[in-house]
Amino acid sequence: MDTGLLLGRQVPASAFNDTTLGRAMDAIFETGTEQLFSQVAFRAASVFPEDMDMQHVHFDTTSGQCLGRLSALYGPGGSASGEFGILQGQTS
């Protein structure tokens, strides 16, 4: 395991156990996953600027979910009926 490359310093394999994993997960939760992701992405862009096209930057960690019967979207014979609209939605 090359922990020096991953973490910036050598860490013995014995340091990785349930307790340290739990502490790491607690720290991620306290920081916030979006904040952590933003910091990692910004750092990667700073360290590897030649590998990143920064002309168009987009940050969106939302996801979509569709609940209901898909049959309502299809016409006779199973072909798609075309358009559908979102009648009610919520983001969290």
What is the CA-atom radius of gyration, in angstroms? 22 Å
Listing every helix as H and every strand as E from the N terminus to the C terminus, the arrangement reads HHH
The figure for the number of domains is: 1
Main beta-sheet annotation: none
Shape: flat
Q: Give the helix proportion (percent range).
A: 25-40%
Describe this structure in words.
This protein has 92 residues and is mainly α. Helix content is 37%, strand content 0%. It has one domain. It contains 3 helices and no strands.
Summary tags:
92 residues; mainly alpha; flat
Quick structural gist:
This protein is an all-alpha fold and 92 residues long.
Which secondary structure elements does this structure contain, and how are they paired or packed?
Elements: H1 3-7, H2 18-31, H3 33-47
